[in-house]
Amino acid sequence: MKLILTAICAAFFVLGCTGQSSQKSKNTTKMAENIYQFKVTGLEGETFDFSTLKGKKIMIVNTASKCGLTPQYEDLQAVYEKYREKGLVIIGFPANNFNAQEPGTNADIATFCQRNYGVTFPMMEKISVKGDDMHEVYKFLTQKSRNGHSDSEVEWNFQKYLIGIDGKLEKVIAPRTLPSDREVIEWIENKA
Length: 192
Description:
Number of helices: 6
Number of strands: 6
Shape: globular
Helix content: 25-40%
Strand content: 15-25%
Oligomer: single chain
Radius of gyration: 23 Å
Strand order of the largest sheet: 4-3-5-6
Distance between the termini: 61 Å
């Protein structure tokens, strides 16, 4: 009888330890982050809090004023005007990472965007989208371990990151693909 009780106690001990270790590993598994954790600085120095965009679809795009793809500003603005009332926000992040194609100051960039393309979607201060000084937002966007979707590298100016209404990364769109491309519009119009 004593041997049976010892065996039962040993079994409970092993099961209890296994359950605890399994529970512990569940708690240490890192959950994917979302865009709402970030606060950034706008072109005019104001704080922009992504948590104010909960429930909206977000397109994040790295921009440049002196790039062959710069005319995409016009397309970005048109898409923004058409879909902002339906819950789309486009956020521009000027970056000088590709052939020094965004050399201006934040004030220069603001003037250029307004004067040449009538940009009204939110534009943030100039940041780095790759390398050792990559901005935290772009670390989130490019690392699967953080975004839960995919690893990516910013290939060039005007790469688009599409964030769903839950703040999670859903798609990465190549720089040369226009914001008005069918794939992007279908994503915007999809109710899910």
